[in-house]
Amino acid sequence: MGVTILNNLTSIKRSLQLLSVIAVFVTSYFAKDLILPILLGFLLALTLSPLMRTLGRAGVPSGPAAVLVVGLSGIAGALIAVPFLVVFRVVCDKVASLQMISHFLDNETRTPPGDGQETARAT
Fold first, then answer.
1. How far apart are CA 37 and CA 35, in angstroms?
2. Do 52 and 65 touch, CB atoms closer than 8 A?
3. How many CB atoms neighbour CB 66 within 10 A?
4. 20 is a domain residue
5. Is residue 94 part of a domain?
6. 93 to each of 83, 102, 107, 109, 111, how far by Cα in Å?
7. How many structural domains comprise the chain?
8. Per-residue pLDDT tens for 28-69?
9. Does residue 10 fall inside a structural domain?
10. HEC profile for the chain?
11. How high is the mean pLDDT of the chain?
12. Structure confidence at residue 117 (pLDDT)
């Protein structure tokens, strides 16, 4: 009888562990609008803290150093993203199965024809 109770307790313990893991994932999914910006901010602070520490050692005050680091990060991101998007668009134009994405990118950057603005301008 004691072995049966011990087996049942082990089974209950494993079931509760599985339910706990599922509950954490479900809660994370529904709280992603709150968790994602916090996690992104944490990773950004962790990534940029060595540069901030170096500027602090060089005698730059923390306010101007933060503006400088964020500005340089934005410029570096743009220098990486813009060529990537240009290459991505060229590849989408050339590959037949990706031409739908190319049309999507065209519609995002240009005003689509027939959106009602021509009739408003004509009258």
1. 6
2. yes
3. 14
4. no
5. yes
6. 15, 6, 14, 15, 19
7. 1
8. 888 888 988 999 999 988 999 999 999 999 999 999 999 999
9. no
10. CHHHHHHHHHHHHHHHHHHHHHHHHHHHHHCHHHHHHHHHHHHHHHHHHHHHHHHHHCCCCHHHHHHHHHHHHHHHHHHHHHHHHHHHHHHHHHCHHHHHHHHHHHHHHCCCCCCCHHHHHHC
11. 83
12. 53
Residue keyed to tokens 């901030």 = 52
Q: How far apart are CA 120 and CA 32, in angstroms?
A: 42
Q: Is the pLDDT of residue 12 over 80?
A: yes
User: Domain for residue 8, yes or no?
Assistant: no
Question: In angstroms, rounded to a whole number, what is the distance separating the alpha carbons of residues 70 and 78?
Answer: 12
Query: Which pTM does this prediction carry?
Result: 0.49
Range of the domain at 44: 31-122
